[in-house]
Design brief:
heterodimer; A: 367 residues; mainly alpha; MetI-like fold; 2 domains; B: 340 residues; alpha/beta; D-Maltodextrin-Binding Protein, domain 2; six-stranded mixed sheet; five-stranded mixed sheet; 14 helices; 13 strands; signal (chain B)
């Protein structure tokens, strides 16, 4: 009951009266805010109608070059006609149900793992899900067994490749980054030096350099006749790179945990790993959820860089489709807009989940 | 530049080692054992190698690989493709990741001699030119002093451009843009006065990307020779012979008028000894190459002759006429070594 006293009085009056009151308070509060509001409205009026006109009213969805040439607006027909090429790249056409299934499967495992926060019963299932799920995805993608034809991974592409590169990247970079962060905090000079040197060297070079080295320099140093798969090289490059950044994020979390917590662990006679697992890391990791998700989002977008080493991620397949026929080439704005929409959808979901995760994990602190 | 030096040094070492280790036929034996040809192609250049809406690789460069596969296996589809960027392509070939590089690659002395490669034929004669808006009021490349030039990095294009302007004592301002879409968009939006790339590229960019193609002209000067062709690694002469003659067979088939359509009829009825040799009616050629006697028949039957491949890919996709790539009998440069 006492809580109600803090709430503002309920609005009274007709709807229009309330609307006027609301906008006076929120939009026209003083000359500066009035100016800002009017400026913003003018900007939107200037910006939105041409976009709507281009993207919807005058646009065409018909998957033909002729229809696009006639349309004065956007040519979504480009995306429509090349949808499967954009989604799955050069994966054999008749077999494209396999990457589709693999992608659905991967999304299922990811959602299952993320849902474990809400449904604790799922927690025990996380590791088995990945241990069973990843080989199934690998079998679907590669084939070569159970009557599935073998598909080289130079044919993988599109959304499945982007999702695989980034989710495998997260799964391996996370523990590796954690070890590096702990190593950097270690009292053992050798481990500490190795961690610091690793982190600083990797952070000192751009990802594009790491990928380029992995793709162009590395094979030259291998013995004659030995080749390591191009996709694997890129995947390892992404993992090594992301781990260095995550390590610094985790270090921030570790440093934010009060010293007394470490001492509490010691006084309970817990071993180093026990006190880390039970006391320090749960607190440290919870503190760094926003920057961790930040790293994941930026890694997800960085996977588009694999295009420079001839792999077709989702953005790469859009480019591939643009070049599939010279007549489509001029509709690159539509292609990139479509790619941007899909990327936004995924990154925004990640951000939303991170906000939800923070709220869930902070429940213990709210009374 | 530095990276390129290191790469070249590394490449030479590898090439030297490879040359020592290689045994005659090692690559060809490997190809036969795995059952397909691994072919390095462009990541997307319409007419040469590009994925179609079903994700299948198509183009005049792709057809060279298909021809090699048809010659070795009797199946033009026994090819696996590795899309490669310009920077990656030679490493991929030297490290054995691919068996043929068929990726609109210009044959040059350094590449042939220093990088340990063998160019086995020229499937497209190209040359670098300039595209300008008519409004610029220029009719010759010699009037381009001080121009801003849009160019893609990392290729001979960039080097030729610098060479040409230096030789003419003119200055220019390069606008280097990696992505062809962005580079052409920059040109058509007026960010640079000139766009330069191979003439084949200029023609297709003008017809496909310009709002009004008539507003743009290609200057008459062609500033470089760009003989583009398939490449293999040095060390397996038997394999380089197979690719060389697979391509030669496509050109020779066109010279004889043997097409995908009439090849069966020609094989059964032709009395021309040249055609009989080519199609394996009078045996010997297959044996010489270590292949089935029907090797060239399979190429023509499944891939087509050179002219058919050109029509289907370059003319249909880019609207380019044969030009330099016509047969020598029609005033072009395509002149097949005789299959005999």
């Amino acid at each position: 009951m006492s809580e109600n006293a803090k709430l503002p009085p309920l609005p009274t009056g007709t709807f229009s009266e309330r609307a006027v009151a609301w906008s006076k308070k929120n939009l026209f509060d003083g000359w500066f805010n009035t100016l800002l509001t009017l400026g913003s409205i003018a900007f939107l009026v200037w910006l939105i109608p041409p976009i709507v006109e281009w993207a919807i009213i005058n646009a065409t969805l018909a998957p033909s070059i002729e229809a696009c040439a006639e349309a004065t607006g956007a040519c979504w027909g480009f995306v429509n006609a090349n949808l499967r090429l954009i989604l799955f790249g050069t994966y054999p056409f008749e077999e494209q149900w396999r990457p589709l299934l693999a992608m659905i499967f991967l999304m299922g495992i990811i959602c299952g793992s993320l849902g474990a926060v809400k449904y604790p019963s799922l927690r025990k299932a996380i590791i088995p899900m990945w241990v069973i799920g990843v080989p199934i995805i690998a079998i679907l993608m590669w084939g070569g067994v159970f009557g599935l034809t073998y598909v080289q991974n130079s044919y993988w592409g599109g959304l499945p490749l982007t999702l695989i590169l980034s989710s495998i990247g997260v799964i391996f970079a996370f523990p590796f980054g954690l070890l590096l962060a702990l190593g950097r905090q270690s009292h053992m000079p050798a481990i500490k030096t190795v961690s610091v040197v690793y982190i600083e060297v990797i952070r000192g070079v751009p990802l594009i350099t790491v990928l380029f080295m992995a793709s162009v320099m590395f094979p030259l140093f291998l013995p004659d006749g030995v080749t390591i798969d191009k996709l694997l090289r890129a995947q390892i490059g992404i993992i090594l790179f992301t781990a260095a950044y995550l390590a610094e994020v985790f270090r921030g979390g570790l440093q934010a945990v009060p010293r007394g917590q470490f001492e509490a662990g010691d006084s309970l006679a817990l071993s180093y790993w026990q006190s880390m697992r039970l006391i320090i890391l749960p607190q440290a990791l919870r503190l760094v959820i926003p920057p961790t998700v930040n790293s994941f989002i930026s890694m997800f977008k960085d996977t588009t860089l694999v295009v420079i080493i001839g792999l077709f991620d989702f953005l790469g397949t859009v480019k591939l489709a643009l070049r599939s026929d010279p007549a489509w080439t001029k509709y690159y704005v539509e292609g990139y807009a479509f790619a941007a929409a899909i990327f936004f959808l995924i990154c925004f979901s990640m951000a939303k989940y991170s906000a939800y995760l923070e709220k869930e994990l902070r429940k213990g602190e709210q009374r | 530049m530095k990276i390129q030096t290191i790469l070249a040094a590394g490449a030479m070492t590898v090439a030297a080692v490879a040359a020592q280790n290689a045994q005659a036929g090692a690559v060809l034996d490997g190809i036969k054992a795995k059952g397909f040809v691994q072919c390095g192609v462009n990541t997307g250049l319409p007419g040469f190698s590009a994925a179609n809406a079903e994700g299948k690789w198509e183009g005049i460069d792709v057809d060279v690989c298909r021809a090699a596969a048809a010659a070795v296996f009797g199946d033009a589809n026994a090819v696996q493709y590795t899309p490669l960027t310009a920077a990656q392509r030679f490493t991929a070939l030297q490290s054995g990741e691919i068996d043929i590089l068929s990726r609109n690659t210009t044959a040059t002395t350094t590449r042939d001699a220093k990088l340990g490669l063998t160019f086995v034929g020229i499937n497209y004669y190209d040359g670098q030119g300039f595209l300008i808006p008519k409004a610029l009021g220029v009719s010759s490349a010699t009037e381009l002093d001080g121009a801003t030039v849009c160019v893609e990095p990392g290729t001979t294009t960039e080097l030729n451009l610098a060479d040409y302007f230096r030789a003419k004592g003119m200055s220019f301002e390069p606008v280097v843009i990696e992505n062809i879409n962005e580079a052409t968009a920059a040109f058509f939006s007026g960010r640079c006065d000139v766009y330069t790339t191979d003439a084949s590229g200029l023609a297709s960019i003008r017809t496909q990307m310009a709002e009004n193609p008539a507003d743009y002209v290609i200057l008459p000067e062609i500033i470089s020779k760009e003989p583009l062709g398939p490449v293999v690694a040095q060390g397996d002469e038997q394999w380089s012979d197979v690719v060389r003659w697979a391509f030669a067979a496509m050109v020779e088939a066109e010279e004889y008028g043997v097409t995908m359509e009439n090849v069966d009829d020609m094989k059964a009825n032709s009395t021309n000894p040249g055609i009989q040799r080519l199609l394996g009616v009078s045996p010997g050629m297959g044996e010489a190459l270590g292949l089935d006697e029907a090797w060239a028949y399979n190429i023509v039957k499944q891939v087509g002759n050179y002219g058919e491949s050109y029509e289907k890919n370059v003319t249909a996709k880019l609207g380019l006429e044969r030009g330099l790539n016509a047969l020598w009998t029609d005033g072009g440069l395509q002149y097949a070594w005789p299959v005999r």
